[in-house]
Amino acid sequence: MNTRPIPPYPILIVDDEAAILLSVDTVLQMTGLNNVLTCQDSRQVMNILASRPVEAMLLDLNMPHVDGRELLGQINQAFPEIPVIIVTGAVEIETAVQCMKLGAFDYVVKPVEDERLVSAVHRAMAFRELKRENLALKQHILSDSLEQPEAFADIVTRNKKMLAIFQYIESIAQTSQPVLIRGETGVGKELIARVLHELSGLKGSFVAVNVAGLDDSVFSDTLFGHAKGAFTGAESERQGLIEKASGGTLFLDEIGDLSPASQVKLLRLLQENEFFPLGRDDPKRTDARIVASTNVDLWEQQKTGKFRKDLNFRLGTHRIYLPPLRERLDDLPLLIAHFLEQAATALNKKIPTPPEELVPLLRNYPFPGNVRELKTLLFDAASRHKDGILALDVFEAQIRRYRSREEPAAGDEEYSTAPGIEGLTFPKKLPTIKQAAELLVAEAMKRANGNQTIAASMLGITQQALSKRLKKSEEH
């Protein structure tokens, strides 16, 4: 198990009683919070804070030399970003409440209950992390640039939506909270997960698993492992993927398909940072960061009872939505060049020259398979290519297949299966059939950048029929 400090900066405990310092330190260590700093002399606190960053602080109220209330005022003035939890006796609750009005984050009452103490510390850590993220995000927005653009080198884009997503990723990459990535099939969710891991600074491995279709027993064994003799055939202990991701990132792909029983187990992992290998009664702890992805809307799954509400909230502390390719068509020229170069290298061929008609043709295709589909089409076209200009056959055939099936792209209102055509409206005075046909032809030619073959394909007529219509229009 990785022994990296948790949290990255220490939790400072200030109390004049050595026994209480030892007790609180032990409770935190047992829950996995191993980065703890203790101070028995209140006069040393400000020097400690000035010499090193501190994640959160537990501060006793009644101490000799400098009491807690006086220290709280000094800390709030000099280090307002540090959440301070007041530790007080039962008779001093009113004083503790007054301290919260003066800026304390929370208070716990002596004798301290372990669960209440740990809960308060975790909330203080989450609050501190949220403030850091907000500051980082604000800095990214103001700078309108990336601090580590090289981390995104495998994602080919110049789209403004994608740049904003990259800035958000940089701002949350070093937090320990779960991240949920949503997007249609083929948009590159695992690529984003790998970027998050690279930017996180975590020293452990990136471990990915597709949980779609796994029943609960297979999910548990895959994720948590098993003890020797846990079931028939378990002749040796098996380490689960969560242990292999220790100190790193565990990527759970297609989390929306997880069974209800497995959802309960994943929820415990997220809440307690612990899990039970099959055949073991004592839990193991983990410090792996969880990143999940889905191509379905978990809010809708939640409404129908297919996905737990509490798990949805736990998974999505940070949420990233990747737009489909049809919403970032300005990336088509870059992606075409990139994938043709990849294909040429893989096939040991010269890079094919794409025809001028290719981009206008593909701009009018909804890409239900997104970037992955574009890559497949380009690799297929490159493999068939002999010499000269790259042929359009592969792309035109795919578009014909799509239109013959009349299958809408997920979430694309422009390809609705509802009766009629979405977005088509009529003026009070209807145009004649001839006028409507001329307007339709003109719009198709505009979308096709003047290419008759592409425009004819969009209108469902032959190129020769379109050419005749255009000639008649010019004559009149």
Report the C-alpha radius of gyration, rounded: 30 Å
Q: Which CATH architecture of the largest domain?
A: 3-Layer(aba) Sandwich
Strand order of the largest sheet: 2-1-3-4-5
Instruction: Please state roughly what percent of the residues sit in beta strands, choosing from under 5%, 5-15%, 15-25%, 25-35%, 35-45% or over 45%.
Output: 5-15%
Low-confidence stretches: 407-420
Structural category is alpha/beta
The largest sheet is: 5 strands, parallel
Nearest-integer average pLDDT: 86
Distance between the termini: 81 Å
Helix tally equals 19
Helix content: 40-55%
Number of strands: 14
Q: Can you tell me the CATH superfamily of the largest domain? A: P-loop containing nucleotide triphosphate hydrolases
Report the principal-axis shape.
elongated
Tell me, what is the CATH class of the largest domain?
Alpha Beta
**Total domain count:** 4
- Which fold does the CATH topology of the largest domain refer to? Rossmann fold
Q: What can you tell me about this protein's structure?
A:
The protein has 476 residues and is of the alpha/beta class. It has four domains: 11-130, Response regulator (Rossmann fold); 144-323, P-loop containing nucleotide triphosphate hydrolases (Rossmann fold), CATH 3.40.50.300; 326-424, Helicase, Ruva Protein, domain 3 (Orthogonal Bundle); 429-476, Arc Repressor Mutant, subunit A (Orthogonal Bundle), CATH 1.10.10. It has 19 helices and 14 strands. The protein has helices spanning 18-30, 45-51, 68-78, 93-101, 114-143, 160-172, 189-200, 216-224, 241-244, 260-272, 298-303, 309-315, 332-347, 358-363, 370-384, 393-405, 433-447, 452-459, 463-475; strands at 11-14, 36-39, 56-60, 84-89, 106-110, 179-182, 206-210, 225-226, 238-239, 249-253, 274-275, 284-285, 289-294, 318-321. The chain has a five-stranded parallel sheet with strand order 2-1-3-4-5, sandwiched between helices. It has a five-stranded parallel sheet with strand order 7-10-13-6-14. Strands 8-9 form a two-stranded antiparallel ribbon. The radius of gyration is 30 Å and the shape is elongated. Residues 407-420 have low confidence and may be disordered.
